[in-house]
Design a protein that fits this description.
binds (2S)-amino(hydroxy)ethanoic acid; five-stranded antiparallel β-sheet; alpha+beta; binds manganese (II) ion; globular; 12 helices
Length: 399
């Protein structure tokens, strides 16, 4: 097949224009936003123009389907609340270019998908989790975003475009191209990462409840201060983790809301997210036990109420050996001595799709390791190298 890098880069920059924001190449295109829906309608038009059957499923994922059995490629086109132009979008447009070139060459059959809400406005890898059967549509419809909007209501905005779910039996594997979103390829001056495995993730919300009161007249010994409880919890968890984690284990309190959030009021409530990731499910278990025990003991010590809710978990996933080998052979050809096999510290739709079929992933570098930020970027030569690896791998797999 004859891929066209200029056409690929043209479409990648066009997709960026839907929700372009902030400085540089920043994008704001959360699931079911106007920009997201416009981008999905544009993608469906590109699929039609590539002689693929364009389709939207009930949860907003859009598909470009080849006739008969095919290799599925793609990623997601929704972004974080402040996102980059490549996270997800790169995998969708690279898949479009390979599928288009394959159609023009008379084969192999390649289908394309852009999953909805990978970035978790409502949950996390929401649409691919539903498609893979790990979350029911009824359950997902009750997922709410930070403003209380329900997934079930948000997806009504595309009800007139949506058809049935796509049958996974037509696909014989899934390959996702993605930016690394970390520092390792960029620091090593390498071009390609062939993914060995994707970390597991667990995510929940913790709420400490105390007494809202006057910040000047309430003596320290009489306070039930929810923020002090949160600070104690985070300090104690950091100390307890220090002796059990590895240098690739990560944990984050990315979202914090304090009520009533005023400088002269002792806070009565502190709600914060607790997310942790590692390649080892047993370590995730041990971390969870510390998380739950520490929340309980801090609440008891400080006479606070504590609630743990919104639990979400995905297990670590190994990449398929055959698909991974095709990517490795392609990487050795395209970027000799400038590629490596590596784990993914980021989560991807491939984690969910792995429940349905063999999956594999290929990375290109993130400049300075930046992602989930407006400054996310990759050199265009590296983007094209990743595209060539994707095309070469699918040719190897189907010859
Ligand atoms: O958080 C993640 O790893 C993904 O980019 N949503
Ligand atoms: Mn992503
Ligand atoms: Mn992301």
């Amino acid at each position: 097949m004859h891929i066209q890098p200029d056409r690929f880069l043209r479409d990648l920059h066009k997709l960026r224009s839907f929700g372009a924001a902030g400085v540089g190449k920043g994008v704001v295109r959360p699931a079911f936003s106007k920009a997201d829906i416009a981008a999905r309608e544009w993608l469906m038009a590109q699929f039609e123009a590539a002689d693929l059957r364009a389709h939207m499923d009930p949860v907003g994922s859009v598909w470009g389907l080849a006739d008969g059995p095919s290799v599925l490629m793609g990623s997601h086109s929704d972004t974080q609340p402040e996102g980059g132009w490549l996270d997800g979008a790169l995998g969708v447009i690279a898949a479009l270019e390979v599928a288009r070139a394959a159609q023009e060459a008379g084969g192999p059959a390649v289908s394309v998908v852009s999953f909805q809400d990978e970035e978790g406005r409502f949950g996390g890898t929401t649409a691919s989790s539903i498609w893979a059967g790990s979350v029911s549509l009824e359950t997902a419809d009750q997922f709410a975003d930070f403003d209380g909007v329900l997934f079930g209501d948000a997806r009504q905005s595309v009800a007139d475009l949506a058809g049935d779910f796509v049958d996974p039996a037509q696909f014989n594997g899934f390959i996702e191209m993605h930016i690394e979103q970390g520092p390792w390829l960029d620091r090593a001056g390498e071009t390609i990462g062939v993914v060995s495995d994707i970390v597991g993730i667990r995510d929940l919300n913790i709420t400490f409840g105390g007494d809202q009161n006057h910040a000047g007249t309430t003596p320290m010994m009489y306070r039930r201060d929810a923020v002090q409880g949160m600070v104690d919890y985070i300090t104690q968890v950091n100390a307890a983790f220090a002796s059990i984690v590895s240098d690739s284990t990560v944990w984050t309190n990315g979202h914090v809301s304090v009520h009533p959030n005023a400088s002269s009021i002792v806070p009565g409530q502190a709600r914060f997210s607790m997310q942790w990731r590692d390649r080892d499910a047993g370590l995730l278990d041990r971390m969870e036990a510390i998380i739950r025990e520490t929340a309980r003991t801090v609440a008891a010590t400080r006479d606070l109420e504590v609630e743990i809710s919104d639990y979400w978990a995905l297990a670590p996933v190994e990449m398929d050996a055959r698909l991974k080998a095709a990517l490795a052979d392609a990487a050795a050809l395209v970027a000799p001595s400038k590629w490596r096999e590596m784990p993914s510290g980021a989560l991807h739709d491939a984690t969910c799709v792995a429940a349905l079929m063999p999956v594999a992933m290929v990375f290109v570098p993130s400049i300075n390791g930046i992602s989930h930020a407006f400054g996310e970027d990759t050199n265009e030569d590296d983007l094209v190298a990743g595209l060539k690896v994707l095309a070469s791998a699918v040719t190897r797999l189907t010859n």
